[in-house]
What does this fold into?
Amino acid sequence: GRITVRLVPAMVLLYLYMTITVLYTFAADIPATLMLIVTDAFTGEAVAGGSIGAVILIGVRRGAFSNEAGIGTESMAHGAAKTQEPIREGIVAMVGPVVDTLVVCTCTALIILLTGVWQSAEGAEGVTLTARAIEQVFPVTGIYLLLIMVGLLSFSTMVTMWFYGAKCTGFLLGSHRQHYYTPIYLALLLGGAVVSMDIVNGLILATYATMAIPTMISALYLAPKVNQAANIYFAKLRQKD
It folds into this structure.
């Protein structure tokens, strides 16, 4: 935990530095690219491949992958934080989706479109497109820095997911039995490394869906209590001012 809390922000800042540098290099083309994103979302190949509802569904899936909003996992991480103000921790938690999706994912999409690699790199997708886009401005170091960032962030994600699973196992079976989850998790990692990405993505989406339903129900049920606690917290802040 102590390593991750320093590692992830450092990697995100480094990634933002690289993407912002690419954006600055192609700054003149940013308005046209933003217009391309908006118009093509409803009139271009996105809709040609299916209905607008299908396009929105894909966006929701990608959003769940990037920030896990509404899934319920982040509450375990922030619930383990040492703080005397749960509302303040909740505000910190809400910043996560803003950084993950609105900032990082938008920057990634823009550099892929601005550099034109989405048209020239046949068969490339995902992080490969990102690497080729960054290479346009960082031809020597870009791909290696991205490799290090992806490796470290992937490792921190694996550790985090193990933590979630262990905590859930401890809740269901007792904290003295949560270590039983570790070999199961290691087996899942090995299995995920050898099967196709379609199977892995399908399994993740299915589990996310089953997690989102009770999470949203509980969020609606607890909303009045959260609002009450938030009113008390912000009232204290106003009194201090």
Observations:
- The radius of gyration is 21 Å.
- The chain has one domain: 2-240.
- The chain has eleven helices and no strands.
- Residues 17 and 241 are 35 Å apart (CA to CA).
